[in-house]
Structures are given as structure tokens and as C-alpha cells.
Backbone:
């Protein structure tokens, strides 16, 4: 094995272990930066020893021991420096030496604490995402930057600020309990789904890191479902992501053009992911979570997944599920989707009434799909002139060139 | 990327009646599977009955014939498999190396990456071109 190859293999192992390693270190040293530093030290130790000695049978335990040894040395030095400072300035807070022996305690929920901390409500969504990918996905700043098409310094700064915010707010490093849990879990699920959508929304073929974001989100979703097996929404979110990801192969033409759900070649859908998604949805429902927002969205996705042909789609059920979703999480976009489903189930007139109720909705005033849907319904009702006007309006609002062209073509008909 | 990870069969796994794994081995394997699950790597996994329970369909041009198991050359057979989602072949190798020994004697685990969508490329073109034609006709499907 070449040296470069050996290093790569070691870094791979370290990356697999780093979330748990960092999670345990934060529990003990109560400082994310220091924990990351000590985890890095453990990697350096591995790079020194493993090429000659081979990767140990239990690399996680080996790295933990290395982090502990190096950590003790480093913290002693730090303690000395701080003491000197304290001697000069008695006001200075005394440095408390963390008990690194506690690293060996198997607390069991280290990883969960890390998830809840990275997705803490004191942080902005952008910071939550960056920190989650960094600490739980083990992604480098450069990889995160590439994934989000954002300059690396921006991401680096986001992470630095996030850690500072957490330190300053003196946030408890714990898994929330009781009433807190539901709200905090919703934040964690939201972060994972944002990461997924960031990857899923990118349709250009050249963006190889984008599908990787979907995969990272799926991994995080699976980890969360495994760590919180009794939480229906953890299964609901995973089911939703797996069913959506099952269509990956079918939703982009080779030239990068998006292929809409109803005209996708269903033979290209991934049966394994559909199977996993449907099983996850069932699990969420068995746990009493059928009414959760993610379980409902997964149930809607499942209606499409179960239809062998587009014309077999159970639109009545989809419309009913959207109605429940609109109750659980009221939103004009959900309402618009419900209108589309109602249109498919009960005809354009019923749907038009719903869409018309949304026309003064400020959140949708620049949303091109509102006039697009309305135009489509009007066209079906034979109100061609009105339909044309809506398509023209939609073309003016569409941000995407392909969609704009499509709308103009429909307006010209 | 996804990999199929295959545990190659051995005389032990091909024995009739099949030698059932010890409790200790089952417990170790269970722990490993749980680790895979918590890491979000595990998509599927199954153990296979010995080839004596299986059969093959052989194709010779258009002619088909059925051959019942067992089959010779145990190490050319597989005794079980997983499907993993990993970031790289390196990661798959790292996981495979921490798998507890599947059998007592010498045995092997083989890792094979799956073809992914992008590998098909041009092969899908006519299909997709046809569906693109349909897109123009179907707009009501905006809920995609």
C-alpha cells in the first residue's frame, strides 16, 4: 500500500469516527473548538502509528485514547498559562481542568447531543446546516463550500461564528426533554430536510457535489431514525427523503432539463428506496405519527410511488392528505398544491375556487406557479383569454429560463 | 455511491444441514449491523441459504435449462450480502474491515460498487426524449 493510499484510508476511518469522538470530547471539555482540536490531534497520532502498525481492531477506542493522552498534555500546558495569568489578574476566571477520564464513560447519547447542539435555535439556519455537516457529516469546510456554491471563507466564518454563539450563550450540551423536545426535534428535522432540498433542487448534471448533499441528508436522517427509533417524525422525514430520492434517476434529462413527476419514466424509480420509504412511513404511522407534517408529506409522496402509471394516481387521497397538511402546517404553498390535487380529483372548477382564494396572498405575489396553475385551470375550463394572461404573468415571474419559455409557449397557444 | 457487499460462501456455510452461527457470532454481527445503521450506511442486508436450496437457469442462446443446487466451488458462491450507501470505496473498505469474521475459517468479503444513474448517460436518451415531448403537453403536474 502506498503512503498516500494509507493516509487516505486512515483519514476515511477518522472521518467515520470523528462525530462520536468530537461528541464525547465536547461532553467533557465543553468547548467545540477544543474538542475539534483534540480530535485532530488524534488523527495526527493515527497517521503516525497506523501506517506501520496497521489500523487497530477498534479504531474508535484507539482514537479516543489518543485524544485523551494528547488532551491531557495540552490542557496541562493551558492550565499553567492560565495560572500565570490568574496570578497577575485575580479577577480572571480560574481554568478548570476537565476530567478527560470521563471520555471512557459510555453515555450512549453523545451523538444525539451533538445533533441537537449543532441545530440549536440560537443559530441561524445557515449556521445550523454548516455546523451539522461539519460536526456530524465530518465534511471539511471546503466540501461544504463546494456543495453550497459558496466561497470557502464564508462557510469558515459561518462555522466560527456559530461556535462563538454557542459558547457565548453557554448552551447546555444535552438532549432536550419533555415539552422542549418536540420543538427542538422539529428544528433538527428542518435542518436535515434543508440539506436534502439543497441537493435535490439542483438539477444541473455537472454539479456532482449536489447529489452528495442528498446522500449526506439521507445518512443524517437514517442516523437520527436509528438514534430516536420511537420518534415518528424522524421516520416520517426519512421516508419522505427516501421516496423523493427514489425518483432521482427519472427527474433529469441527460441535457439537465427537469422532467416533471407526472411524465417521469417510472421504470427508472429506485424500488429499494421506495420500499424503504414505504416501510418508514408505516413505522411512523404505527408510532402514532400519521398526522405529523413529514409523515403527511411522505404519505403524499407514497401515493405517487404506489401508482404504477401516472393515471393510476389516487388524487382524492392526495387532496385529502394536503388538507390535513394544511391544517398541521398552514401555508399558501401547501394550499396551492392542494388546489392542484383537487383539480385532478374533482375537476378544474373546484380547484379554481381554491386558487382564487389565494390571489391576494402576499407570500405568493411573486410566485410564478400561482398564475401557472391558475392559467392551466382556466384553460381546462375553456376560458382561453384569461388563461393566456395568466401564462404571460407566470412567464414574467419565472426565475428559471426553461420554465419561462414553457409559459410563453402556453400563452401563445 | 452504493455498494453491494458480498460475503463469500465457505464449506461451513454450504454444509447440509447448514451450520448455524454461534450466539457470539450472531451478537457480534448484530452489533456491526447496528453500527452500520446508526452511521446511515445500511440500506439492506440478508443471509442466504446454502446453494443446495437454490437453482440456476442456464441460457444457451435462446435455450434455457434449469440446474438444481448445490453448486461446487463454495468460494465462488455468496452466503450473504449487504447494500451500503457510502461516500467512497475507501469508506466501504473501512467498514468491511471492521466487520466481525463471518465464519471460523478463511473467508472473504467482496465489495462491488453499483452502477449509478450517471453511468447510463446516453443509453437513456430516446426514453427521456420521449418523456420530454410529453412534458410540453402536461402542465397540470406542477406539484412535482
Residues:
Amino acid at each position: 500500500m502506498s503512503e498516500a493510499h494509507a493516509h487516505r484510508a486512515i483519514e476515511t476511518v477518522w472521518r467515520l469516527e470523528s462525530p462520536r469522538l468530537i461528541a464525547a470530547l465536547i461532553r467533557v471539555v465543553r468547548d467545540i473548538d477544543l474538542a475539534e482540536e483534540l480530535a485532530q490531534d488524534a488523527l495526527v497520532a493515527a497517521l503516525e502509528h497506523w501506517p506501520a502498525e496497521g489500523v487497530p481492531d477498534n479504531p474508535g477506542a484507539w482514537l479516543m485514547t489518543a485524544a485523551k493522552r494528547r488532551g491531557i498534555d495540552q490542557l496541562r500546558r493551558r492550565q499553567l498559562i492560565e495560572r500565570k495569568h490568574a496570578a497577575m489578574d485575580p479577577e480572571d476566571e480560574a481554568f478548570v481542568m476537565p476530567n478527560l477520564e470521563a471520555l471512557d464513560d459510555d453515555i450512549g447519547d453523545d451523538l444525539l447531543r451533538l445533533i441537537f447542539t449543532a441545530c440549536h435555535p440560537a443559530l441561524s439556519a445557515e449556521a445550523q446546516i454548516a455546523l451539522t455537516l461539519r460536526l456530524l457529516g465530518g465534511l471539511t469546510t471546503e466540501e461544504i463550500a463546494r456543495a453550497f456554491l459558496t466561497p470557502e471563507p464564508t462557510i469558515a466564518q459561518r462555522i466560527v461564528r456559530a461556535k462563538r454563539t454557542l459558547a457565548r450563550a453557554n448552551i447546555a450540551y444535552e438532549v432536550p426533554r419533555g415539552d422542549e423536545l418536540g420543538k427542538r426535534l422539529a428544528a433538527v428535522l428542518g435542518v436535515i430536510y434543508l440539506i436534502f432540498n439543497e441537493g435535490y433542487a439542483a438539477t444541473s448534471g455537472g454539479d456532482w457535489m449536489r447529489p452528495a448533499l442528498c446522500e449526506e441528508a439521507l445518512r443524517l436522517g437514517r442516523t437520527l431514525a436509528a438514534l430516536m427509533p420511537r420518534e415518528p417524525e424522524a421516520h416520517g422525514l426519512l421516508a419522505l427523503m427516501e421516496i423523493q430520492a427514489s425518483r432521482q434517476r427519472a427527474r433529469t434529462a441527460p441535457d439537465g432539463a427537469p422532467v416533471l413527476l407526472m411524465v417521469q419514466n417510472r421504470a427508472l424509480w429506485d424500488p429499494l428506496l421506495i420500499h424503504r420509504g414505504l416501510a418508514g412511513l408505516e413505522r411512523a404511522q404505527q408510532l402514532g405519527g400519521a398526522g405529523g407534517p413529514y409523515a403527511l408529506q411522505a404519505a403524499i409522496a407514497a401515493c405517487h410511488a404506489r401508482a404504477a402509471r401516472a393515471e393510476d394516481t389516487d388524487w382524492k387521497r392526495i387532496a385529502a392528505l394536503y388538507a390535513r397538511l394544511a391544517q398541521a402546517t398552514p401555508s399558501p404553498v401547501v394550499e396551492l398544491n392542494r388546489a392542484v390535487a383537487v383539480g385532478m380529483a374533482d375537476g378544474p372548477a373546484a380547484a379554481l375556487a381554491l386558487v382564487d382564494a389565494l390571489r391576494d396572498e402576499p407570500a405568493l405575489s411573486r410566485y410564478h406557479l400561482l398564475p401557472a396553475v391558475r392559467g392551466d385551470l382556466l384553460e381546462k375550463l375553456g376560458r382561453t383569454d384569461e388563461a393566456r394572461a395568466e401564462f404571460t404573468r407566470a412567464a414574467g415571474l419565472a426565475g428559471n429560463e426553461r420554465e419561462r419559455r414553457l409559459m410563453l409557449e402556453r400563452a401563445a397557444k | 455511491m452504493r455498494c453491494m457487499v458480498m460475503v463469500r460462501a465457505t464449506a461451513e456455510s454450504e454444509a447440509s444441514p447448514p451450520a448455524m452461527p454461534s450466539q457470539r457470532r450472531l451478537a457480534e454481527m448484530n452489533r456491526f449491523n447496528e453500527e452500520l445503521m446508526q452511521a446511515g450506511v445500511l440500506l439492506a442486508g440478508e443471509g442466504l441459504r446454502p446453494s443446495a436450496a437454490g437453482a440456476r437457469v442456464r441460457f444457451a442462446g435462446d435455450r434455457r435449462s434449469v440446474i438444481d443446487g448445490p453448486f461446487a466451488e463454495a468460494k465462488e458462491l455468496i452466503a450473504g450480502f449487504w447494500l451500503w450507501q457510502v461516500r467512497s470505496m475507501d469508506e466501504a473498505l473501512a467498514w468491511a474491515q471492521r466487520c466481525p469474521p463471518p465464519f471460523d475459517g478463511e473467508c472473504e468479503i467482496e465489495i462491488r460498487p453499483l452502477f449509478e444513474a450517471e453511468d447510463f448517460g446516453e443509453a437513456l436518451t430516446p426514453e427521456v426524449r420521449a418523456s420530454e415531448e410529453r412534458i410540453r403537453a402536461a402542465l397540470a403536474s406542477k406539484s412535482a
Remarks:
- The CA atoms of residues 225 and 234 of chain A lie 5 Å apart.
